[in-house]
Amino acid sequence: MGNPFDYAPDRPEHIDAILNGLDRYNPETTAVFQEYVVQQCDQKFYDCYANLALLKLYQFNPHLTKDETITNILVKALTVFPSPDFALCLHLLPPHILTPASASSALPAAGDAPLSEAVQKLNVLNNLLAQANYAAFWSTLDSDDLYADLIADVAGFEELIRIRVALTISQAVREIERSVLESWLGMQGEAFNKFVNEVCGWATDGTVVKVPLNKENEAKGTVVRENVKIEQFSRVIRRAYEQPA
Amino acid sequence: MSAFQNGAAPPRAIDNDSDVEEEALAADYREQVQYEGMEETSMTMAQQTDDIQSRLAAAAQPLDFSAPLEVKFASYDNYCSLFHFILNSDGPVDLEPPSYYWAWDVIDEFIYQFNSFCSYRNRAARQGTNSEEIQILREAPNTWGCYSVLNVLYSLIQRSQITEQLAAMKRNEEPMAVAGDYGSKPIYRMLGYFSIIGLLRVHCLLGDFSLALKTLDDIELNKKAMFARVMAAHFTTYYYVGFSYMMMRRYADAIRMFSHILIYVSRTKNFQKNAQYDSITKKNDQMYALIAICVAFLPTRLDDTIHTALREKYGDQLLKLQRGGPESLPIFEELFRASCPKFISPTPPDFDNPELNVDPLEHHLAIFMDEVKTNMWSPTVKSYLRLYTTMDLKKLAGFLEVEPEKLRNWLLVNKQRSRQIRWTDNGLLDGEVVGSGDLDYAMQGDLIHISEAKVGRKLVDWYLRNLARTY
After folding, report:
1. Complex ipTM, two decimals?
2. Radius of gyration of chain A measured on its C-alpha atoms
3. Residue A132 · residue A165 · CB < 8 Å
4. Residue by residue, what is the 3-state secondary structure of chain A?
5. Which residues of chain A have pLDDT under 70?
6. Which of A127, A219, A239 sits opposite B471 (nearest CB)?
7. What's the half-sphere exposure (Cβ side, CA atoms, 13 Å) at B458?
8. Nearest CA of chain A to the CA of B173: how many Å?
9. What b/e sequence results for A95-113 when a residue is b if at least 16 CB atoms lie within 10 Å of its CB, and e otherwise?
């Protein structure tokens, strides 16, 4: 987990070169970045720093904006919750994007009303995930066909989310009731067993699912002791030489 | 004897944190303040004799806030021609910067005018009342355009080879060896250097917080950095770095940045010239407000000086923030509004649809407030958990008058948010995940196991302080 924010293990060299040079501002590179987003969606990897560079190009050149790419980037950012990536993407979108539809639908000329609707819908999902309200997340996702359209391009979206949910659970839970976990993971029956046993490696025991102990969920008390370094005393020691009494 | 004490500066320990260094820096600063008077007089003489010198000086002069539109346009043209002269003359121009802080003032003023022009344009389009002005603005979409501003900053950075120079300095090599024809001249080196800090600021104003931090990769944030020689630069750098960290939810790092600079200011304020001090007082208060926000997100033990000042300035608000819940929301909003940078939108506004030109501040605030709402129950949850070592989830939900399911969510959220990425080494975006809460817990079915990290008494700081007082 100790990787810098701008690091992505799967980033190809040509993308890296653009990101580190002035070409990241060149409108002609939007095509390259867009292609890269498609790759991320298809091949289940993720590069937030590159996606932010694309959103910045859109920010500077609104006429180049492709709504579909924006929503795909946001959907990808959902799959890495609870990191701040989704919010960081939102910050680069046009300021009116989050104003409620009632205000913008009154404007016939507002060409990007569908985009702002989609972004607001995704923001709802993001907030549910951030608030760890996983059960509501799954039911909201099923509640509207628009969501199905939005996530269609991102391969394995539900699987990626489930893995993240499982990760956050493993940090805080040692044992959990099956029914609760089912609602959090949005799956039941055989699929549930398979995911919990094989992907997570957790044990099901009747109505209880046991999560193996790890560093985060043992909750061990510790005593932090002061770490004293000799450097802290350098001034005192030097004083003793400078001003002999 | 006095020569021994004052003439040769004692060798400084290579240590970021020692008091010695801060004092040396403070002394250095005091010297500069005394020099300033002299430099100003020599500058006025130069102005009379040398046209270019007066243009250089004019570029650093603040523009009146209420200046009419034509003046803002003219000022843009002036900057363009000045930077064009500096960057695109036949070879490096042979100029001495009027003062050691001139380069900072120019970049600072350049960005300030860009910033206020964008805000002004956006407001004009939103209000849509002054059709004459709107017409002028509509016809000049490229004046103070973000591409040209970024172009200036990046060109100054490239011309001066400042990144190469800084990289060489990091390797303990002679920067002049890689500086090239341009970068070896102080005027280019300083403009290039402060352009990096200018970029940090512009990216932050545009809402690109990760790129803002990435920009500083080559600059080492310590007291020996070049920006530390110019108080305003020092101050600005830490404000924007801290703010960017806060927006990336790295509160521990944000607090570290704000504390560093606030302590520095409180130590040096006694010998700062009044005018200069006034201008930073406002930013100073803003940073205290930001610290209050960060501490609410991530309870942290602050430096005593900061803590006292924070309680003086924002005592009531801090209490409410720390208590959390819906009552804290307006306070978060109020403090954020008062202390965030003046965000801008990089493109010309949509003059035909005034309603679409939402103030960028509202946009960033809305995103920020979502995060606040996500977190607002954490203080409540923690205050209860602190009282027990084991607790039944349903019983606690009863105390809190919420559904057990809701409480489970809160517990998960708080657990996630107490894990913070914290800087240890290398670039500012680097860091390691640290569980920063003093409170830890895990759920076993409906049973919550709670443990607390106890901090042993910290005596060294107290001991040293008293020792320093006595001797």
Report:
1. 0.86
2. 24
3. no
4. CCCCCCCCCCCCHHHHHHHHCHHHHCHHHHHHHHHHHHHHHHHCCCCHHHHHHHHHHHHHCHHHCCHHHHHHHHHHHHCCCCCCHHHHHHHCCCHHHHCCHHHHHCCCCCCCHHHHHHHHHHHHHHHHHHCCCHHHHHHHHHHCHHHHHHHCCCCCHHHHHHHHHHHHHHHHEEEEEHHHHHHHHCCCHHHHHHHHHHHHCCEEECCEEECCCCCCCCCCCCEECCCCCHHHHHHHHHHHHHCCC
5. 1-2, 101-113, 221, 243-245
6. A239
7. 13
8. 24
9. bbbbbeeeebeebeebebe
CB contact under 8 A, A107 and B459: no
For residue B131, the tally of other CB atoms under 10 A from its CB is 11
Q: Does A225 touch chain B (CB under 8 A)?
A: yes
Going by C-alpha positions, the residue among B467, B471, B460 that lies closest to residue B17 is B460
Contact residues for B379 (Cβ-Cβ < 8 A; gap 6+):
B296, B322, B323, B324, B325
CB-nearest to B453 from A6, A25, A221 is A221
Interface test with B, best of A96, A183, A239 (most B CBs within 10 A): A96
With contacts defined as CB-CB under 8 Å, which chain B residues touch A3? 430
Preceding amide of A82 cis, omega within 30: yes
Radius of gyration of chain B from its Cα atoms, rounded to whole angstroms: 25
Q: Chain B contacts of A113, Cβ < 8 Å? A: none
Measure the CA–CA gap between A144 and B405, rounded to whole angstroms: 24
Of A25, A130, A218, which is closest to B442 when you measure between CB atoms?
A218
User: Can you name the residues that pair with A176 across neighbouring β-strands?
Assistant: A209
**Is a pLDDT exceeding 90 seen at residue B421?**
no
d(CA B321, CA B323): 5
**Tokens 């970029």 sit on residue:** B199
Residues of A in contact with B373 (CB under 8 A): 127, 131
For the segment A174-192, what is each residue's pLDDT rounded down to a tens digit?
A: 889 989 999 999 988 888 8
Q: Closest chain A residue to B357 measured between Cα atoms? A: A96
Domain ranges in chain B are 2-372, 377-452
Contacts of B189 (CB under 8 A, 6+ apart): B160, B162, B165, B179, B183
Cβ proximity of A189 and A138 under 8 Å: no
Minimal C-alpha gap between B129 and chain A (Å) = 19
C-beta atoms of A231 and B15 within 8 A: yes
Domain B377-452 class, CATH top level: mainly alpha
A–B interface: beta-carbon pairs under 8 A: 210
- Nearest Cα to Cα of residue B199 among B256, B159, B156, B262: B156
Strands A208-210 and B390-392: unpaired
Q: Is B409 close to A132, i.e. CB distance below 8 A? A: yes
Instruction: Note whether A84 contacts B249, CB cutoff 8 Å.
Output: yes
**CATH class of the domain defined by A13-98+112-172:** mainly alpha
Minimal C-alpha gap between A133 and chain B (Å): 6
A115 token code pair: 């985009």
Beta-strand (E) ranges in B53-104? none
Place of tokens 């977190």: B375
pLDDT for the residue numbered B419 = 83
Kindly report, residue by residue over B136-161, the tens digit of the pLDDT.
Answer: 888 888 888 889 999 999 999 998 88
Question: Are A226 and B405 an interchain contact pair (Cβ–Cβ within 8 Å)?
Answer: no
Interface of A with B in 45-74 (CB under 8 A): 48-49, 52-53, 56, 59-60, 62
Instruction: Sketch the domain layout of chain A as residue ranges.
Output: 13-98+112-172
User: Given an 8 Å threshold on Cβ–Cβ distance, is A219 in contact with B441?
Assistant: yes
The DSSP bridge partners found for residue B420 are B434
Both tokens assigned to A4: 């810098």
Examine the pLDDT at B23 and tell me if it is beyond 60.
no
A 183-202 residues with CB below 8 A of B? Answer: none
